[in-house]
Amino acid sequence: MTRTTTPVLVTGGAGFIGSHLCEALIARGDYVLCVDNLMTGSLDNLSDFMRHPRFEFRRHDITEPLELKVSAIYNLACPASPVDYQRDPVHTLRTCVQGALNMLELARSCDVPILQASTSEVYGDPLQHPQVENYWGNVNPIGSRSCYDEGKRCAETLFYDYFRMHGVDTRVIRIFNTYGPRMQASDGRVVSNFIVSALKGMPLTIYGDGQQTRSFCYVDDLVRLIIACMDNKTRHETPINAGNPEEYTMLELAELVCELVGGASALTHLALPEDDPKRRKPDIEQARTVLDWKPEVSVREGLTRTRDYFRAALIPERARKESSLETREAAHA
Ligand SMILES: NC(=O)c1ccc[n+]([C@@H]2O[C@H](COP(=O)([O-])OP(=O)(O)OC[C@H]3O[C@@H](n4cnc5c(N)ncnc54)[C@H](O)[C@@H]3O)[C@@H](O)[C@H]2O)c1
């Protein structure tokens, strides 16, 4: 297929999911422009392709307008872990709402499709299970997670209003828990938390009784869905759930991680955070029928790859600690 040299824009491209998306788009022949303010992302995530001739990085905050010529927009910029998005809730909301407005204006002026990375958090603490796209959710508008949940809901509204008012070709996917290499080791997300703790021989932290459930999608599967959604020419009447419907309690996940890492890690229990959802599981019928998509990487396989990534990433840290210990011992000898 011939591809235009006008780049596709990936906002938040230096983050966990965004960096995998940039890599996949380059691999299929696209020119990719990544914009990111590096608030939670890192240039390290781009190191494998930073110098690729079809890749460009620009440091920019999407709450400020952008004037560019692009051929499609993937809008992923937004801190995604509760620790990160609660650090500056007003900026999170501004990113969700003003950032979405700026990117929608850019899509409108370039007359190109735009995809919004929304979230299962728009369902809040759901009263319907599994969550189907036409469920409106159960969200606290004034809690400590609301900057993210309500910000993403408002962004979805903007996407559908830009379609209705201006005919912008908008697509919205609702991403459920996604994991894989390049997650931050310490941003509080359960998969990285468990794996890193187990690798360090530290206790795994369980919030509440550990019976709350999540479903985990490996990042490569998600990236396939994101690209399929952008490439799909039919008009999507509603957002599309993106996730792996296999459901795990936190205790089951902890057990599986301990088995894959080896050794026995203890569990510590802390109180549940405010508005923590009790159950999460996507209905993915739409993704199956509209995009012909289904997850292919099993949770066991995905966790194994993620374990290997963190194991390698932790080696320099371990080596640094050991060498500083040796230096201190030598100084005391
Ligand atoms: N990882 C998940 O499980 C998950 C689940 C649901 C939704 N999502 C959505 O997917 C997207 C990517 O998530 P992620 O897990 O890769 O998170 P991440 O924090 O690793 O990546 C987000 C990226 O956006 C950048 N960013 C944040 N605010 C910005 C701004 N104002 N301007 C420019 N760049 C900005 C950050 O620096 C970072 O590189 C987010 O929109 C998130 O809401 C992720």
Task: Explain what this protein looks like in three dimensions.
By secondary structure, the protein is an alpha/beta fold. The protein has one domain (8-318): Rossmann fold, CATH 3.40.50. The protein has helices at residues 16-27, 82-85, 89-110, 146-166, 190-199, 219-231, 250-261, 285-291, 299-332; strands at 8-11, 32-36, 55-59, 72-75, 114-119, 170-175, 178-179, 204-207, 213-215, 217-218, 240-242, 247-249, 267-270. It has a seven-stranded parallel beta sheet with strand order 3-2-1-4-5-6-11, with helices on both faces. A two-stranded parallel sheet has the order 7-10. Helix 4 links the parallel strand 5 and strand 6. Helix 3 (89-110) packs parallel to helix 4 and helix 5 (190-199) packs across helix 9 (299-332).
Compact description:
41% of the residues lie in helices and 15% in strands.
